[in-house]
Amino acid sequence: ILEWIEGKERNIRALISTLHTVLWEGENKWKPVSMADLVTPEQVKKYYRKAVLVVHPDKATGQPYEQYAKMIFMELNDAWSEFENQGSKSLF
Length: 92
Known about the structure:
- By secondary structure, the protein is mainly α.
- The chain has a single domain, classed as DnaJ domain (Helix Hairpins, Orthogonal Bundle).
- It is 53% helix and 0% strand.
- Helix 3 packs antiparallel against helix 5 (66-85).
- Keywords: Kinase, Transferase.
């Protein structure tokens, strides 16, 4: 997780576009997302919601990756809060 967030702290676009690199084995609901798919605030919101559905701690309860999912979920939530606080701007 630390390697995943390094250099991307609170950057929701960067975290979503690299989420596939930190998901546990057997997780096949998430398809990689490119930065080109995360240009507008609406696109970011759409993929953020999909991402938290995949890693939500309630879905991982009792699973070996439960703590891992919680950490990913918290990082995504922190980044989303930062995105909203900065005014949810488009990339261009």
